[in-house]
Structure formats: structure tokens, C-alpha cells
User: Which sequence fits this backbone?
């Protein structure tokens, strides 16, 4: 049922309040039923995010529901929200990078907005990959797109953008392994410079 709804509702025109509620109810039902139904959830959530349906809708009971933040909507009870948690949705989107990126963009609120009195997500999680995608989304949309397409890792994109230094872990208890790693990651000139510095000391 969820999949049929998602396909039928894909159109350019914005949804009315009751259509938004029906979409949200389908997403909530997918979460509650679990199993194969969960496969439909990422597509339903993407539509909810694209249309910002979570902000305001009218339930089947005729009640108008509004939310200031996405995490408030996620944790609200069924019909008024998804009756879930931010961490559960994160897990369900692990294999859907594009949807997860839209989810994070809608969920995250910069500290400056909070300081100005605006609504802000209260989510505590700040993983390095998530932070990297936020930075790339904001300042290097080209590299951000390549990460989502699977062409680059978020770390490689951050290094290419100049936002992060290239580093490598070198084992100090195995000189042969340390040397192999340095030869792999440094060019001839860099290896010569390193050797000169070490000899000088």
C-alpha cells in the first residue's frame, strides 16, 4: 500500500494538508509494521522532506498539526508524527545516502539560528562524516555531489577542498610497516625531505 501511494502521489503540484497527512500516515505505518514495509520508508520520507509536509498537515480526524522542528515531528505520536526516534530513522537511511543527506539538511539547525531565537534541532549526534557532508553541502556543492554519487569518500572530498589535512596512521612499534606506509603515501621528494630532516636531528 505504501509503495502504491508513493508512486501515485509523485507529481509536481504541491500537496494539500490532507494529502500531506496521508503521506505521513503511510510512512508511520511502514515504521510500525516493520519487515518488508520498511523498504518503502526512505522513499516516503524523501517525499515528506521534499515537500516539507512535516511542517503542517491535517489529520484524518480533521486536526491541524504543525511542527517547528523535524525531530519534534519524528518523535510525536502517530497521526501527529512518526512515533519514532531520530536514531531509528538514521539507521533506516544508512543505505540511502541521498535521502539521508536531505534528512540531515532538514534536521540540522546551525547554532547561529538558535542564538537568534529560531527553531533548532536538539539532536546530539555529530559524527565526523555527517559534519563533513554538512561542510561540503554548504561550501563545496560540487564535491558534495561526488560524495553522494559514490565517486569520493567524505574524507577525500574534505582533503580535496582544503578543509582537512591529509593524514596517515604510522605504527611506531613496526619500523618496516611504518616505512612501507610512508613510501606508499609520500612521493620521492617528500621522502627525501623527510630523510634529510631525520638525519639532521
Assistant:
Amino acid at each position: 500500500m505504501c509503495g502504491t501511494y508513493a508512486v501515485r502521489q509523485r507529481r509536481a503540484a504541491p500537496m494539500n494538508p490532507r494529502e500531506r497527512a496521508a503521506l505521513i500516515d503511510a510512512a508511520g505505518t511502514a515504521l510500525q509494521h516493520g519487515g518488508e514495509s520498511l523498504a518503502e520508508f526512505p522513499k516516503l520520507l524523501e517525499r515528506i522532506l521534499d515537500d516539507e509536509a512535516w511542517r503542517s498537515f491535517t489529520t484524518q480526524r480533521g486536526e491541524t498539526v504543525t511542527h517547528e522542528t523535524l525531530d519534534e515531528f519524528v518523535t510525536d505520536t502517530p497521526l501527529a508524527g512518526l512515533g519514532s526516534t531520530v536514531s531509528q530513522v538514521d539507521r533506516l537511511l544508512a543505505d540511502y545516502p541521498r535521502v539521508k543527506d536531505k534528512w540531515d539538511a532538514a534536521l540540522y539547525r546551525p547554532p547561529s539560528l538558535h542564538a537568534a531565537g529560531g527553531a533548532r534541532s536538539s539532536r546530539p549526534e555529530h559524527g565526523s562524516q555527517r559534519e563533513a557532508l554538512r561542510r561540503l553541502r554548504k561550501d563545496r556543492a560540487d564535491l558534495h555531489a561526488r560524495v553522494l554519487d559514490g565517486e569520493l569518500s567524505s574524507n577525500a572530498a574534505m582533503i580535496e577542498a582544503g578543509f582537512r589535512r591529509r593524514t596517515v596512521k604510522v605504527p611506531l612499534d613496526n619500523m618496516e610497516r611504518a616505512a612501507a606506509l610512508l613510501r606508499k603515501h609520500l612521493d620521492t621528494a617528500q621522502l627525501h625531505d623527510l630523510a634529510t630532516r631525520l638525519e639532521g636531528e
In short: The CA atoms of residues 42 and 93 lie 6 Å apart. The longest helix spans residues 17-33. The radius of gyration is 23 Å. Residues 168-201 form one domain.
